[in-house]
Design a protein that fits this description.
Elements lengths: L7 H4 L26 E7 L6 H8 L5 E6 L6 H11 L4 E5 L11 H5 L6 H9 L6 E6 L2 E3 L1 H12 L3 H14 L5 H20 L12 H11 L3 E14 L2 E4 L5 E2 L6 E3 L6 E5 L4 E5 L4 E12 L1 H4 L33 H11 L5 H17 L6
Parallel strand pairs: 1-2, 1-4, 2-3, 6-12
Antiparallel strand pairs: 4-9, 5-12, 6-7, 6-8, 6-9, 10-11
Helix pairs in contact: 2-12, 6-9, 7-8, 8-9
């Protein structure tokens, strides 16, 4: 296969394209059976601000962390080598030599081949996973470790007996001709089985907020493969302090960050209209919202400012009101997360969380403002 590219790397033949280009047949490895576990996948370039804190916040919930990294202008590579030694049984590093080139809509593909775009860069690490579940991670995300561990615990719990019982019951329900009666009986059965699994007494399954219970609920009732969508909170730097980005409160609540069981039909593709990468799923998956799992520091790295007209809410003030009633901008697609999860999940935004994971990234951002994006 021949490639034409106008970048200096390719003109100088700095690498063999065949070592990096991901073909359709390469995805077939994802159809092979994998042991139970979670493979994290981190893609890295110029992430010194929060890379260490990101890894420390999620590594305990992972069985492996695949890190694909591109050439950086800061000390990202030094941090990666340090953490590969810190977690030798979990971290696997892969250097992706082709530069990821910032592209301009459709003109991008006319000038540069696919190995220079994000989707190939992502797929390069994606197909290397060893475990059943896959989790996409960004280096500007700092995770709520305890909540992530609860998801892990629920994913690994075997409820196959209860699922088989519910499936058999659903088949029997088809002998009842009235749909409304079938729905009522099915709901009662689901509630009975879930309460049995959890040793609990849920009355309304629509009001489950505990993440462990919610994951088991999804596993029990969803008849397709679950695509567990993870959301985050956007923070910005305001007056050299951390502040909610009330003009753009939530992040990643649309399925772009999730945990799921990949197959050869699910892969990263380039969205030409949005000039971004996106995961393409087949119709066997059902998206399941799991709430707020991290804080997002990307707006700090990009030096976004607080939009005029929105409330200033410093980090230490987030938990001071019982309900989140501040003036914020929430797209309709994020309303489910705001209404169902935010007031419960903001409890993770503690002083301890700040001291352990957020203090150093903020200090880095203040000291290196001229080096950020």
């Amino acid at each position: 296969m021949s490639y034409h590219c106008e970048c200096e790397q390719c003109k100088n033949k700095e690498f063999n394209p065949e070592d990096y280009i991901i073909k359709e047949e390469d995805f077939k490895v994802l159809d092979e059976e994998r042991p139970l576990g979670i493979s994290g996948h981190l893609r890295v370039k110029d992430e010194a601000m929060s890379l260490a804190e990101c890894i420390d916040s999620c590594i305990d919930a992972l069985d492996e962390l695949i890190i694909t990294y591109n050439k950086s202008t800061d000390n990202t590579e030094e941090i990666l080598k340090e953490y590969a030694q810190k977690y030798p049984d979990k971290i696997r590093l892969y250097y992706y030599k082709p530069n990821i080139i910032l592209y301009d809509n459709n003109k991008y593909l006319e000038k540069f081949p696919i190995l220079h775009n994000l989707c190939n860069y992502y797929n390069y690490g994606y197909i290397k996973i060893k475990y059943k579940y896959y989790m996409k991670i960004d280096a500007d995300q700092i995770y709520f470790t305890d909540k992530l561990l609860s998801i892990r615990k629920a994913l690994f719990k075997d409820i196959s007996k209860e699922i088989s019982e519910l499936n058999f019951y659903n088949k029997l329900l088809w002998f009842i001709p009235i749909r409304k009666i079938r729905s009522i009986l099915r709901y009662k059965k689901e509630k009975k089985l879930l309460n049995k699994i959890l040793n609990s007494n849920y009355i309304d399954l629509d009001k489950i907020s505990d993440i462990y219970d919610l994951i088991l609920y999804y596993k029990l009732i969803i008849r397709k493969s679950c695509y567990f969508s993870l959301g985050g909170i956007n923070l910005i730097k305001f007056n050299n302090k951390l502040c909610l980005n009330t003009g753009n409160l939530l992040n990643g609540c649309v399925g772009d960050h999730s945990i799921w069981i990949p197959n050869s039909k699910s892969k990263y593709i380039m969205e030409k209209n949005a000039v971004t990468e996106n995961i393409h799923l087949d119709d066997k998956f059902h998206i399941c919202g799991t709430g707020i799992l991290w804080v997002h520091l990307g707006d700090i790295k990009k030096q976004h400012s607080l939009a005029k007209g929105f409330d200033v809410i410093y980090y230490e003030d987030i938990n001071r009101k019982e309900n989140f009633i501040y003036k914020v901008a929430i797209p309709m697609i994020h309303m489910y997360y705001k209404d169902h999860f935010f007031d419960n999940d903001k409890k993770y935004l503690t002083k301890e969380f700040y001291d352990r994971f957020l203090k150093k990234p903020l200090e880095y951002a203040i000291k290196n403002q001229d080096k950020l994006w």
